Automatic annotation (TrEMBL):
It holds the Pfam family Sulfatase. Keywords: Cell membrane, Membrane, Transmembrane, Transmembrane helix. GO terms for cellular component: plasma membrane. InterPro entries: Alkaline_phosphatase_core_sf (IPR017850), OpgB/LTA_synthase_biosynth (IPR050448), Sulfatase_N (IPR000917). CDD domains: LTA_synthase (cd16015). Its main location: membrane. It comes from Draconibacterium sediminis. It is found in: Cell membrane. The keyword Signal does not apply. It comes from the Bacteria. This is Sulfatase N-terminal domain-containing protein.
Amino acid sequence: MSLSFILAVMILLVRLHEMVILSNYHNYPPGSFSTLLFGIKYDIILYLRVSAVLMIPFLLLGLFSQKAARVFFISASVLLVLGDMLLLKYFSAAGVPLGADLFAYSIDEITQTVKSSGEINVWPFIFMTLFLVYMVRVFIKHVYYKLKPWMLLLISAAMFASLAPFGFLKPQPSDFENEFSLYAATNKLNFFSESVLKRYVFNEQIDKQSYTFKTNVATADGSFTYLDEDYPFLHQETTPDVLGKYFEPLETKPNIVFVIVESLGRAYSGKDAYLGSFTPFLDSLMDRSLYWENSLSTSGRTFAVLPSTLASLPFGDRGFTELGEDMPDHLSLMSILKTQAGYNSSFTYGGEAHFDNMDVFLKRQGTDKIIDNTGFGTGYEKMPASASGFSWGFGDKEIFRRYIDEIKADTASARMDVILTLAMHSPFEVENQEYYLSKFNERLAELKLPGKTEAFNRNYEKQFSTVLYFDDALRYFFYEFSKLPSFNNTIFVITGDHRMPEIPISTQLDRFHVPLVIYSPMLKKAAKFSSVVSHFDITPSLLALLDADSIISRPKAAAWIGHGLDDEEDFRVANAYPLMRNKNEILDFIDGERMLANKEIYQIYENMDIETVNEPDKEKELEAELNNFLLKNNHACKNNKLIPDSLKVYTYHGQ
């Protein structure tokens, strides 16, 4: 038992390190100290759980060799504490804890992400090494003592009781002011372990069940009429044309340009952003556009944005693009425009397009040209490198300039192009950094935010400076694009891929809350909508618009997840949406004004804030819906059952 107590002290020392050093070095938000102090409760629970798990092999080994038993316990303890320290280091830099999504990335992707953080230096690793050496020494030199039998019995009972699924043993969202506080209190090793167990045990149980096939599912605008039980997402394509009333009649093929913005969250963009808006140019564009203030990304990471926005696809096991060459046959906006109307297409990105298999997915759509940092060309400048010497690639202004230079030579043919920005990403290094840091202070003064919000924002001036840099780059993009003959015949779709986690997230819904803007000189009027929509809804609505004006003839059936954009001006949540917070974890589901997030049920309010509610029946209903989606998702993606052969005429891959 004395060995076990040493482990407890070491786990508590890791917490002390976070409270005293990491929270200050990484600018945890004000009030974090008390949250971290409260988190000691969950460190003790981790200690009890680890001790319970190690006790049985320790005792069995002790029957043969006391020395072998001690070596086993010491080795396991050192490795576990090392894991706790590394996971804590990740959380302090990323703002979110690491879970089973770790195993969804390749070694190259992990290396690239770690380098990008700018956190690679020798001192943290020296500290960890010295701490672990000290830990081993304490274990070896420790003083043995005996406890009274009743104390041994009590502690042993506590150890095994900690393994029970009691609610009070894990942090409850309702006990914390925001999501960051929830995760700050959480023991990061415990979070990682539970995530891995849920991913690799729970999903196996789901695979053994069968989904419920429904012929009709009610939506706000009618219903999905499903067509074939073996193709669980296939339904009649009857998405209503809600966009047509806002556009002049499309007499020629319009160009469509997607501007997908890395980490553009509603928390800091658009009117009434709760942290204040740091995108003044985009805000002015919203006033001249169709603007959904309550739009949702489908994931908390970039990997899902292309399949969701361009094809309204399910997630697969670890994100649709992770299926690589085994992606099931599917329809997409790009492939339909290419096969039905002869559109040209391109993808422009300042980083490496093979990250998250983006290039593999885009080639399946028939993308004519993929421009990334491996073939950007001369005359363009990369973003400044981080302290580790790493740069993701080219900044947003250079990305926009590269795209404009590319299309200047081809303004006659109809185009569908995708631009993915990069600057609003760790390590948050951009050209003219000092200028944008100064601009951050100017913007903060203009916003006149409440004192608490202003103090919070000042902790993240580098992150906010990249938001201002992007906004300037977007202003440049529209200024240059407006000079081209094709400008007046172009539809621009602007949205974020997810909210930035490095600025602490307030709620489980906040991570997905992004603006959605559709701008075009062909708009008859601007409008702002408060209805909740998602990336899944974009492609069905654009196709409905083009079909209504006879630009294309859309398929009679499709496997879209989305129902189309909702143009209700007042707040409502008309449809159901699965959400995948990161690779390996589909834990969230929205149906109407209720959200299931990691087995907790919340009500969604008009300001997109959420609050836990006590509705056991509704919770079970949402859990059943989420599980049913997972079953359909697994069946369709593993067995190539999204669309039948008859629809492959609309796919570039099927030509």
